[in-house]
Amino acid sequence: MDTQLDLWEVFIQNKAGSYVHAGSVHASDSQMALQNARDTYTRRQEGTSIWVIPAKYVVASNPEDAEMFFDPANDKIYRHPTFYVMPEGAKQI
Amino acid sequence: MNATAIDNLFQQKIDLDLNIEPKDQMPEKYRLHLIRQISQHAHSEVIGMQPEGNWITRAPSLRAKQILLAKIQDEGGHGLYLYSACETLGISREELIDQLHTGKAKYSNIFNYPALTWADIGAIGWLVDGAAIVNQVSLQRTSYGPYARGMVRICKEESFHQRQGYEIMANMMKGTEAQREMAQDAMNRWWWPSLMMFGPHDSDSPHSGDAFTWKIKRKSNDELRQKFIDKTVQQAEVIGLTIPDDELRWNEEKQGYDHGEINWEEFKRVINGNGPCNKQRMDHHKKYHAEGAWVREAAAAYAKENSK
Ligand SMILES: [Fe+2]
Ligand SMILES: [Fe+2]
C-alpha cells in the first residue's frame, strides 16, 4: 500500500507580521512538515517564520452560515468612528 | 438546497467575480473540470523537470548548473502548489498520481520532446516557460481561489525561468558559428510545439464553453497564442534568431502576426502517446515513485513510533 503521508496547512509570516495561508504539504511529523514547508514555500525569503498545522485540526466556518455569522455586523454602524458627529472646530479627534 | 438552487447561487458568485473556495458548494461538473485541469497542470510541472534534469550534470559552467538546479527546483515546487490546490477539491494525492500513471490524467505534450543540446535548455526556458507564462498570467484571475492564488505565486517565480533561457540563447548567438547553428536548431525544433501548448484553435475546441461561463478560462487558446507570438518574434529578432515559419507576417490591421498552419496531426500523434519521449517520461516517473515508497513508509513508521 502506498502512503502519501498526512496533510499539513502552511502559514508564512510576512513582513507586516501576519501569518498568511500559503498552501499545504504532506509530511509524517511536525519536523518534516516544517522542512517541507520551508522548501516549498520560502525559496525566496517570502517570510521569517512558518506555522504548520495538521489539516485535520483546522475548523472552518461554513460558507452557508456566512449570512448568520457576518451580517449582524452590518447594522451596527455605531462601531465605526465616522458614525459620530464632532463639534465644529474640534481638532485631533 | 436543491441542485438548481446551488447552481444559481454559484453562477451568481461567478458573475460577480467572487472566488469560489473549497468549502463553497459548486456544481459537480465544475469540480471535475478543475480536477482535470489543475492535475494536468501539476503533472506538467513535475514531468517537465525531466528534459531539463537531463542537463544538470552537463551544464557548461558552475553558474549555469546552479541556475538550472534552482529552476528545476522551482518547477517541483510549482507541481506541489498545484497538487495542494487540487487536493482541496476532495481528491487525494494517491489518486492524482495514480491517474497520471494509468494515463487517465495527461500532462503537457511539450515534455514529450527531448532536450538534445545545451541550446535546448535555452529554448525551453525562453519559449516553453514563455508560453506557460502567457497562459498562467491569465489564470491568475481564474475563478477557483486556491488555483488562482497558486498561479500568482507561480507567476512571480516564472520570469526568472524565461530570462535565464533567453540569456542562454543570446549568449550562444554571440558565440561561434557552431553555437549559432545549435541555437537556431533548437529554435526550429521548439517553436511549433510551443505554439501547440495553447491547444487547438478556438473553432476546434467545442468544450471550452463551460470553462468560460465558469470563468475558469478568461482568454481563448488563440488569443493566448497570439499574445505569445507577438512578444516572442521581437525577442528572436534582437538576438538574430529566425522564426521557422515562412508565412509569419505582421498584420497591420489586427496589430499582430499572422502565422502558418500548425501541424495538428503531429499534435494528435504525440498526445496519443507516440511522441519521441512519452514512454520514457512515464517510465521514469513510475520508477522513481515506486523506489521512493520505502522512504514514505519509513517516515510514517518513525512518526508512529515517536507518537507512542
Ligand atoms: Fe513552472
Ligand atoms: Fe518555469
Structural write-up:
- The complex is a heterodimer of chains A (93) and B (308).
- Chain A is of the alpha+beta class.
- Chain A has one domain: Ubiquitin-like (UB roll).
- Chain A is built from two helices and three strands; from the N terminus they run ββαβα.
- Chain A has helices at residues 30-41, 66-70, and strands spanning 6-13, 19-27, 49-54.
- Chain A has a three-stranded antiparallel β-sheet with strand order 2-1-3, with helices on one face.
- The longest helix of chain A is centred in the middle third of the chain and has 12 residues, at 30-41.
- The model of chain A has no long low-confidence stretch (mean pLDDT 90).
- Chain B is mostly helical.
- Helix content of chain B is 68%, strand content 2%.
- Chain B has 13 helices and two strands; from the N terminus they run ααααααααααββααα.
- In chain B, strands 1-2 form a two-stranded antiparallel sheet.
- The relative contact order of chain B is 0.11.
- The model of chain B has no long low-confidence stretch (mean pLDDT 95).
- The A-B interface holds A 2-5, 7, 22-29, 32, 39-41, 43-44, 60, 62-64 and B 21, 23-25, 70, 73-74, 77, 80-81, 84-85, 87, 92-94, 97, 146, 149-150, 153, 157, 293, 296-297, 299-300, 302-303, 306-307.
- The site of one fe (ii) ion (FE2) has 4 residues of chain B, from α4.
Q: Key terms for this structure?
A:
heterodimer; A: 93 residues; alpha+beta; Ubiquitin-like (UB roll); 3-stranded antiparallel β-sheet; 3 strands; elongated; B: 308 residues; mainly alpha; two-stranded antiparallel sheet; 13 helices; 68% helix; 2% strand; globular; binds fe (ii) ion
